[in-house]
Design a protein that fits this description.
Blueprint: H1 10-49, E1 52-57, H2 63-74, E2 79-85, H3 87-98, H4 103-106, E3 114-119, H5 126-137, E4 142-147, H6 149-190, H7 193-201, H8 206-242, H9 252-283
Antiparallel strand pairs: 1-3, 1-4, 2-3
Helix pairs in contact: 1-6, 1-8, 1-9, 6-9, 8-9
């Protein structure tokens, strides 16, 4: 009668514990890298949400024309929110910024009325804004369109500079992680190679032999993913305690995505590694097991 691969022995406990520890440390490394990507994506999204387009209007426009232009802008897909600023409000804001009262001295309002339009983040790119600026400029009553061209230029340049190195680093770390987890699981199954062969000799099919190992591998992946996520959260809590302002901008959705990525990677890598490791020992002949 062959032993079950799940029979509790000191050797099995030791092997299982070393497998879980190895997978947990590897997934923690992958999780931290994933967090860097998610944080960068969140930061980029937040910057794009702050992009504003200033639409300056003709000073002679009446209220009906201004309302028409505002409604026309709000109807566009690229518009997220609009705010009308009168010439009086704009001049007062300029006085506050400069610290000088020049309106009474000039005798007129030097700043024209405008509409501040907050863009949908999907359209907050230089190429899109050039098209949007041209489209808005064609509206009757609009005299000028301004947007944060310098800010967007720097943002897109930094994204281009950082994207390729991060993708290369992520690919290398992913390959290393897969290799480490694969070797850990192969060593775990190596200790049960005789059980696999015994099950095969009594007529068990490949699927029947693989099933308990696959289920155990998936369980190891889930458990390691949960432990890795816990380690990452603990590290973040420690960093935040050392610097109260650090990581305050991280959103709950970012943590939810990180949880899904770490656990999913644990399950996927464990499943693939277990599948190929078991198949290897199924194909081996009796004399090759020693």
């Amino acid at each position: 009668m062959s032993r079950s691969p799940f029979k509790t022995t000191r050797s099995n406990w030791s092997t299982s514990l070393s497998t879980i520890v190895g997978m947990t440390l590897t997934l923690t490394m992958l999780g931290l890298l994933s967090l860097l990507f998610l944080f960068g994506k969140q930061w980029q999204q937040q910057l794009r949400e702050q992009v504003m387009v200033q639409v300056f209007l003709d000073k002679e426009l009446d209220e009906a024309s201004i309302s028409r232009i505002k409604k026309e802008l709000e109807a566009e897909a690229y518009s997220r929110e609009t705010k009308y600023i009168t010439a009086q409000q704009a001049s007062e804001e300029m006085e506050d910024e400069l610290g000088e009262e020049f309106v009474d001295f000039l005798g007129y309002l030097p700043v024209p009325p405008s509409i501040d339009m907050q863009l949908d983040p999907a359209y907050a790119s230089l190429d899109s804004l050039e098209w949007i600026s041209s489209r808005i400029s064609s509206i009757d009553g609009v005299t000028e369109v301004e947007y944060q061209k310098v800010l967007l230029g720097r943002l897109e340049e930094n994204i281009r500079k950082l994207s390729l190195p991060l993708i290369i680093l992520a690919s290398l770390l992913l390959l290393i992680a897969i290799a480490l987890i694969n070797n850990t699981i192969r060593l775990s199954i190596f200790s049960r190679r005789f059980i696999i062969k015994s099950m095969q000799l009594v007529g068990a099919t490949r699927g029947f032999i693989r099933r308990p190992f696959m289920l155990k591998g998936i369980w190891f992946g889930i458990l390691s993913g949960l432990l890795a996520f816990g380690m990452i959260v603990s590290l973040l809590a420690l960093f935040r305690r050392m610097n109260s302002g650090l990581l305050d901008s991280l959103e709950i959705m970012t943590f939810a995505q990180l949880f899904g990525i770490v656990v999913a990677l644990g399950i996927l890598i464990a499943w693939i590694s277990t599948y190929f490791a078991v198949n290897k020992y199924i194909r081996l002949k009796q004399d090759q097991l020693y």
